[in-house]
Amino acid sequence: MQNHEIEATWHYHNGTKHPNGMLLNRFHVYHPSHRPTPYKIYKNVSQIDLPLNKTPIGISTLDAISAENIDNHIIPDLDILGRILYFSSGITKKIKFQGLGEMEFRAASCTGALYHIEIYLICSDIPGLGAGVYHFDPKHMKLDVIRLGDFRKFVSQSTADEPFTNQAPAILVFTDVFSRNSIKYQSREYRHAFWDSGTILANTIAITSAHKIPSKIITGFADSKICELLGLDINKEAPIVIVPIGQTMQDMSICPTMQEINIEAISSDYEIEYPEINAMHEASCLLTETEVKSWRHQITLERKQSNKLIPLGKNITTCESLENTIIRRGSTRKFSLESITFDQLSTILNKTTSKINSDFTSMESLSDIYIIVNAVDGLESGSYYFVKEKNALEQLRKGNFRHASGNLGLDQDLPYDASVTIFFMLNLDKILEHFGNRGYRVAQLDAAITGGKMYLASYALGLGATGLTFYDDLVTNFFSPHAENKETMFLIAIGKKEKPT
After folding, report:
1. Looking at the structure, do residues 58 and 87 belong to the same domain, yes or no?
2. pLDDT of 35-65, one tens digit each?
3. Which of 6, 65, 183, 448 is 20 to 30 A (C-alpha) from 363?
4. Which value, in Å, is the radius of gyration of the alpha carbons in the chain?
5. Integer angstrom CA distances of residue 465 from 351, 456, 462
6. Which residues span the domain enclosing 339?
7. Spatial contact of 376 and 345, defined as CB atoms under 8 Å apart
8. What is the pLDDT of residues 430-478, one digit of tens each?
9. What are the DSSP calls for 156-217, one per residue?
10. Residue 303 maps to a domain
11. Do 162 and 49 share a structural domain?
């Protein structure tokens, strides 16, 4: 299947829509007692302890998530890499649940708390760590040694020598273990691969920014080459995104000889396969470096012109550190019906929609942001469209849409109770026309990164937030005619957390 044959994306996307997607079994049942072990376990490998210093370095959450691209030639040391990995995907809290025992929760949210995203590190010699290919073990805060030697050139070649990657002393690769999430969400799991890696990336970008270390999100690479490097079976675990970190003026050395990895590893307790996931991933793979090079060109989308705009309110300043916000963050399980302020909503929109340094766009988020306002002091209840270029809101309809908000969010209480529900939508046809099937990865990831930033901004402002799933076509219908021909990529609900009684 070729990347430009976009029927594959529409087959998958339409087939995994709620409530009646033909690739979903409506009678599927998941019980938390069947939750897979949320870690990849390597057997009989050497491990390296990661230092962990959780002390805030003095950068506020709102400053970290809104920083523009950083242009510093910095090489992160092992201490900083430990912080980047911990605040991206480390264990931040443990909670006991009756009948299920103790569960470990990570720095970034994940659908179903199934934690199916793994992180690998490929680096040169850096202070405290020798060149090699490593797997991050969040349970024990260690690095599993997969290969020794400097294999960065192999990664760079897979990206068709993308310039930023060429100069990075450290490179992170995010992968998705399909069955660890599909056990609950079936074929819709492939959407979650990008939702969950995107929310982790929001943390990664923020913590690297806090340390004034440049990073970039790379979505264009030859998939099979990364699988070869990491020793992955692409039908079970697949590379999702590459994140080069830091910059150096030194040329990459020639790679050591590539030997087959002969290390036993367990990625999931269950081997349940959904062929639709594998088919969608294969259809969006780039096969050669030449194909990657021709694929990589950024997109700029035209936005609708709007009238009768409502300027956003003032930005709120808070000294809440990024580290404290990440440790404190969780997915809100119950909202009160209280209002948030217009300035709080304005700050969230302002601080989270800044430019992302990526290989697919030079502008702000590709997604259009639609909002249902249930309870915001200083803003009339109704539906809105965020006009980024004007830093303003366009009111689409007036009215109390709490019931609609709850209905669109899969008939759950959370979107009904929340102060606002925010929907990320885009014209998927245009994205696929530009990027082919690979554009489906880009579209989902782009929305999730901004959604992840909104998670952090909300908690920094003393609010709660949670990501939710949705009835796809009902969302489009609700916001039409403005949202005509747009598909929903992500949904986040924000409000005040209900206080324990």
Report:
1. yes
2. 899 999 999 899 999 999 999 999 999 999 9
3. 6
4. 21
5. 16, 9, 10
6. 309-495
7. yes
8. 999 999 999 999 999 999 999 999 999 999 999 999 999 999 999 999 9
9. HHHTTS-HHHHT-SEEEEEEEEHHHHHHHHGGGHHHHHHHHHHHHHHHHHHHHHHTT--B-B
10. no
11. yes
Distances (CA, A) of 256 to 133, 150, 202: 12, 7, 33
110 with 16, same domain: the answer is: yes
pLDDT single digits (tens) 277-299: 999 999 999 999 999 999 998 77
CA distances (Å), origin 385, targets 201, 305, 369, 422, 482: 25, 11, 6, 10, 9
Residue among 453, 399, 458, 390 nearest 424 (CA): 453
CA dihedral 254, 258, 263, 266 (to 10 degrees): 80
In this structure, which long-range contacts are made by residues 259-265, counting pairs with CB atoms below 8 Å and at least 24 apart in sequence? 259/147, 260/231, 261/146, 261/147, 261/230, 261/231, 263/42, 263/43, 263/44, 263/45, 263/146, 263/231, 264/42, 264/43, 264/44, 265/40, 265/41, 265/42, 265/43, 265/231
Residue 302: inside a domain: no
Residue 26 lies in a domain: yes
User: Quick one: 149 and 75 in the same domain?
Assistant: yes
- Is the CB of residue 310 less than 8 Å from the CB of residue 394? yes
Paired sense of beta strands 340-341 and 420-426, if any? unpaired
Domain count for the chain = 2
pTM: 0.96
DSSP assignment of 423-490 equals EEEE-HHHHHHHHTTHHHHHHHHHHHHHHHHHHHHHHHTT-EEEE----HHHHHHHHTTTTTT-EEEE
Please give the Cα distance from 489 to 469 (Å, whole number).
9
Q: Can you say how many angstroms the Cα of residue 179 is from the centroid of all Cα atoms in its chain?
A: 18
DSSP 97: E
> Given 295, 324, 353, which residue is the final one in a domain?
295
Q: Which helix (H) or strand (E) holds 146?
A: strand 142-148
Pair 289, 316 in one domain: no
Helix 78-89 and helix 189-210: axis angle, to 10°? Answer: 140
**Does a structural domain hold residue 82?**
yes
What is the SS3 assignment for 76? coil
Is the dihedral angle over the CA atoms 176, 371, 433, 292 positive or is it negative?
negative
User: Is residue 467 within 8 Å of residue 199, measured between CB atoms?
Assistant: yes
Q: Are residues 289 and 409 in the same domain?
A: no
Q: Out of 243, 266, 295, pick the residue that ends a domain.
A: 295
Same domain, 255 and 313: no
CATH number of the domain where residue 463 is located: 3.40.109.10
User: Contact 488/423 with Cβ under 8 angstroms?
Assistant: yes
Q: What are the angstrom distances between the C-alpha of 21 and each of 24, 346, 477?
A: 5, 36, 17
Do residue 173 and residue 207 come from a single domain? yes
CA torsion sign for 155, 161, 167, 172 is negative
Residue 249, class by beta-carbon neighbours within 10 Å (0-12 exposed, 13-18 middle, 19+ buried)? exposed
